[in-house]
Structures are given as structure tokens and as C-alpha cells.
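Work Package 3 (structural annotation) set out to generate three-dimensional models for the target panel prioritized at the project kickoff. During this period the team completed the workflow that converts sequence records into C-alpha cells, so that structures can be stored uniformly alongside our sequence database. As a representative example, we reproduce one entry of 187 residues exactly as it appears in the project archive.
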Amino acid sequence: MCKDPIALETLAGWWLGELPASEAERVEAHFFACAHCAGRAEWLAALSEGVRVALRSGAFGMAVSAPFVEEMKRAGLRLREYRNDPGGRLNCTMAADDDAVVSRLRAPLAGVKRLDMVQRVEVPGAPALEIRLDDVPFDPASGEVLLVLPPAALKKMPAHTASMRLFAVGGQEARLLGEYTFSHTPS
């Protein structure tokens, strides 16, 4: 066991290449001297690979960071990106050769501590489906929430409308930051 283990946040920052060079060097030196933390780095690598495989297979969607999207691009994934502003409505699609769709929801995130999202999907002739996601990961400085939608499911979906509402949550109150609508047409 390590007497001074590397914090998971620092480990993730190292893995994503987000640490300053001096901090990254300190973390790497620690790995060479500490089997416990080196094992945690191996675990993170395996987890990361598992997420990549699941994402490539289209098994799920998720909120991601901008560095994660850049890593997807460096890995050679073909991404289709849509940027939407509060109150915006976009036409969108996903081609057969796309690996993923990234929805960039611009929002006033400065000062927001917790973000919740309500997604509503309406397919003509079927009941609407509404899903609430609490405590969605986001970077307040970026001014946007990045979502990777489940590609396998999206490729099979008929024409539909999806709307997302973002809420800044503080205590018992939620403040609407924006509603974003996407009109999806299969390719």
C-alpha cells in the first residue's frame, strides 16, 4: 500500500495529458517507485480502453470533456459535431460511417455548481420518452456541455425530435439555463 497515493483526479489528469509538465514528471517518477500507484495507472488504462471499446460499439452515450473529444479525434474516430445555443433548433443526422455524434450545448455555466439535464425524445406515432440525468459532468469555464449520444441506437432510430433542457441546481431550486432541440433524420 502507498503512504501517499496519487489522487484519482491527478491520475486522470496525467492520463489525459492535462497536467503541467512538472506535475506530470512528478507523477511518473512516483509510478516508478510505487507498485500500488503504478497498478492504479494500469487500472485506469484498462478502464479507458474499456470505455473506448464500449463507445465504439455504440453501447452508451455520456457527457464528456473537451480533452476526451480531442482524444477521440486523435484515435481516428469519425465524429459529427453539432453546436446548439439555448433556444436553438438544429437539423441533424448520423451517417453510417460516423463513429459518434457530439452535441455541444452552449450554456452560461459560470458559477454553476451542479447541472441536471432532462432529455425528451419524440418519435411520431410513439409515446414520448423523458429521461432525467442528475449531476451531469461539465466544465464551467468552457461554456458548453458535451454529449456523446449512443451511436448504435442513434443509427437505428427513425426520424425523431430530441430536446434537452439544462438546469443549474442549487439547494432545492433549479434554474433553466437553456433548451436545445435536435430534429434527427436518418441518413
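The chain has a mean pLDDT of 89.
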